[in-house]
Amino acid sequence: MLGPRARRGRRAALRILIGVDDSPHSTAALEFVKRMTWPQGSEVVVVSAVRTSVVLYTEAYAPPAEVVEEVIEEQRKLHEDLVSRAEVQLRDRGFKTSTRVLIGDPREALIEMAKGEAAELIVLGSHGRSGLTKLLMGSVASHVVTHAPCSVLVVRTGTKTN
Question: What's the pTM?
Fold first, then answer.
């Protein structure tokens, strides 16, 4: 049964989560969201995750915990700047927005964020990794598509909407 808004031909506002990093693929996803026509009142949550690196060390050297914390804090600040810049671009296009910077594996962070924010759509850029690189680094888009609690839109670099 259709709700009253659907019967009048109006589409319900969406809660869209867009995952960003500092890559051209992320920029393509952001540009795609900006160009599309979304239902009035749709909200975009701009999310970036600071990946905690798993680094293998020899017994000769292991960095002190303070150094690791400083690196993570520096990365968090860079991600804060990244989501802030994306938010400004979206607000300039009339979107209601919010931002989040998470610490952890981007694959799991995006899925948990989508659940917590009741997102109806996740938008991601595709890095197009394959082979050994995909095996070692993992594919955020592939993982999110497989495990997300909502629909996922993967934007490839150079995608046109016209």
Answer: 0.79
The closest alpha carbon to 47, from 21, 8, 76, belongs to 21
CA atoms of 1 and 111, how far apart (whole Å):
29
Q: Is the dihedral of CA 71, 97, 139, 102 positive or negative?
A: positive
For the chain, which domains are there? 12-155 (3.40.50.620)
Sign of the CA dihedral running 141, 145, 150, 154: positive
Burial class (CB within 10 angstroms; exposed 0-12, middle 13-18, buried 19+) of 60: exposed
- Tokens linked to 154: 């993967």
Q: Which amino acid is at 88?
A: V
Find the Cα–Cα–Cα–Cα dihedral 35, 39, 43, 47, rounded to 10°.
Answer: -50
Residues 6+ apart with CB under 8 A from 128: 25, 156, 157
Q: What is the pLDDT of residues 4-55, one digit of tens each?
A: 444 455 678 999 999 999 889 899 999 999 999 999 999 999 999 998 765 5
**Dihedral sign for Cα atoms in the order 103, 108, 109, 112:** negative
